[in-house]
């Protein structure tokens, strides 16, 4: 990809357990993410999706392979990458107001500019007027929107999300998907999302990568050719959406069967 923003080449990640055993998580993963592209990672449970995301963001050092962000090697979390985690109640500081939590993502800016960015980020996620509230005063969905605001306040080049909506109810999940979709459409950032929800991956993405069983490789790359903007009601009842969802699910189930086969042989 000529205009690749993030490049992952032959990535291998192994993790040493407490008893000294070395477990291979990803074996040979290669993919690229372009400018203003939305990409999702799906696969069977335990295949290494989160580990791959953490390595791609600079949070975990890979065993081998190459990671490039804007053409430069990733050795730590670089400026330009923001991360949203699944457990919003652990990612926000309960002793800080929502405004101060969001401001943590803009620590490198002068106070006046930081305040302006916080105000814009809260407005983007529909939390204007909640800057002086504390996390425990907000619902789970609102807390995750605050976490999104903190990730967006620095105007990232890539937003990485690890199961960002898994801890909320179905209706709130749909709403948060649309919040992210609107943020992405109205901004220039690219997105890399890990999710177990195949429908969510199809709904939000331009491309979906299916990981194989562990140690993982790329089992399939599926282009999502659905028109944008997308609607929870209209898009999800389109025949093409149903076809794509079935295609992704079939490949995930294929990876799951591989996993069972490996376990049986062991």
Describe it.
With 266 residues, the chain is of the alpha/beta class. The protein has a domain at 4-80 and 198-265: Rossmann fold (3-Layer(aba) Sandwich), CATH 3.40.50. The chain is built from eight helices and ten strands. The protein has helices at 49-57, 88-91, 98-103, 111-124, 140-152, 170-185, 198-204, 239-265; strands at 4-16, 22-34, 38-42, 64-69, 72-73, 81-84, 158-162, 190-194, 207-211, 216-223. A ten-stranded mixed sheet has the order 5-4-1-2-10-9-3-8-7-6, with helices on both faces. Strand 9 and strand 10 (216-223) form a beta hairpin. Helix 7 crosses helix 8 (239-265). The protein is globular and about 50 Å long. The chain starts with a strand and ends with a helix.
Briefly, what is this?
The protein is an alpha/beta fold. It is built from eight helices and ten strands.
CATH architecture group name of the domain at 4-80 and 198-265: 3-Layer(aba) Sandwich
As a percent range, the share of strand residues is 15-25%
Element string (H = helix, E = strand) = EEEHEEEHHHHEHEHEEH
CA(first)-CA(last) distance: 39 Å
Identify the notable features of this structure and list them briefly:
266 residues, ten-stranded mixed beta sheet, alpha/beta, Rossmann fold
């Amino acid at each position: 990809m000529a205009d690749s923003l993030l490049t992952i080449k032959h990535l291998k990640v192994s993790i040493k357990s407490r008893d000294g055993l070395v477990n291979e998580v990803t074996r040979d993963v290669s993919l690229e993410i372009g400018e203003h592209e939305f990409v999702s990672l799906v696969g069977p449970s335990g295949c290494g999706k989160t580990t791959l995301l953490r390595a791609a963001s600079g949070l975990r050092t890979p065993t081998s392979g190459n990671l490039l962000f804007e053409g430069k090697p990733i050795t730590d979390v670089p400026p330009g990458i923001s991360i949203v985690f699944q457990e919003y109640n652990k990612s926000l500081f309960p002793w800080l107001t929502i405004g101060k939590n969001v401001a943590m993502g803009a620590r490198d800016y002068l106070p006046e500019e930081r305040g302006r960015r916080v105000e814009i980020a809260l407005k983007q996620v529909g939390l204007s007027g909640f800057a002086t509230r504390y996390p425990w005063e907000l619902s789970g969905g609102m807390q995750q929107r605050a976490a999104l605001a903190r990730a967006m306040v620095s105007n990232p080049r890539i937003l990485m999300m690890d199961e960002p909506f898994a801890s909320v109810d179905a209706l709130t999940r749909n709403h948060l998907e649309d919040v992210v979709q609107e943020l992405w459409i109205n901004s220039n950032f690219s997105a890399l999302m890990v999710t177990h929800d195949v429908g969510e991956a199809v709904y939000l993405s331009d491309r979906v990568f299916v990981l194989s069983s562990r140690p993982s490789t790329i089992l399939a790359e599926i282009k999502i050719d659905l028109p944008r903007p997308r609607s929870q009601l209209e898009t999800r009842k389109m025949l093409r959406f149903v076809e794509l969802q079935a295609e992704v699910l079939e490949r995930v189930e294929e990876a799951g069967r591989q996993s069972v086969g490996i376990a049986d042989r062991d």
